[in-house]
Amino acid sequence: MFKLIDFDDKIFTSQQFRKDEISFNLILTLIQKREYYPQIKCYSDQKDVIILNTDANHPVVVWTSENFNDFELIYNFVSKVFSKNEPLSLTAKQSCYQFFQKRNWVSDDENTKILGVYKLDKLIDIEKQGYLDCVKSTDVEIVANMIKAFEEDALPEEKHPFSYYLEQANKYTTLTYTHKVWKNENGNIVSIGHINNSENTGRIGQIYTVPTERGKSYAKMLVVELAKITLKNNLMPVLYTNFQYEPSNKCYQAVGFELLNTIYTYSVKKIA
After folding, report:
1. What is the full DSSP assignment across 187-242?
2. pTM
3. What is the pLDDT of residues 157-212, one digit of tens each?
4. Less packed terminus of the chain by CB within 10 Å, N or C?
């Protein structure tokens, strides 16, 4: 059965989890940011399953190895331990989602979200308009507003004070090698993005273009340059996208990224 584990448990370095480390980077990211989530808890059988939740307002993240298929056991455990989560939502592999869907346990399926996990196959360079740049202290508020807009689009369940976004934006002034912006020909910031490096990968994330500048390939240009930085560090560029939003998926595929996996977030309720 599943027991409460520490965040340095051996399961995180196991061969089974490492196979899915790119797809479930979310687990490692949440652990790294646990100071923002004082209620975060993690359970595991220390072999085939990791179950993590930050608080009652967020989905329960479930990683399962390719050998595991007792998803009803997971449901029974999660529904008991996280009974205060309303509705009960899971973020898990497609196999887990399909198990519940076939039993009609997925509620409000129209609001199911699919995360596309991409890794670089072969980088395709494109013609540039504008240029890559770092952020000056005078532009921190601009970037903070862009980060806030990004989260409102991609993570509407996240609610933070503006001071949180200012803190995140300040990283663009200090971590200038990994946190970049794209400026148009007039020198205005039109896109933002950064790289989170781990042992083997560089996760390109928080790609956001202001609405008035979309359709001009600025996000593509920024992603290409961030991928080049990642490759210089001998890391595999990876990124994550809303799989149901076709433009962003086409954008990443156009510069050489290939789909590795899909992760589903959905509400679930067992039918007696």
Report:
1. S-EEEEEEEEE-SSEEEEEEEEE-GGGTTSSHHHHHHHHHHHHHHHTT-EEEEEEE
2. 0.84
3. 778 999 999 999 999 999 999 999 999 999 999 999 999 988 789 999 999 999 99
4. C
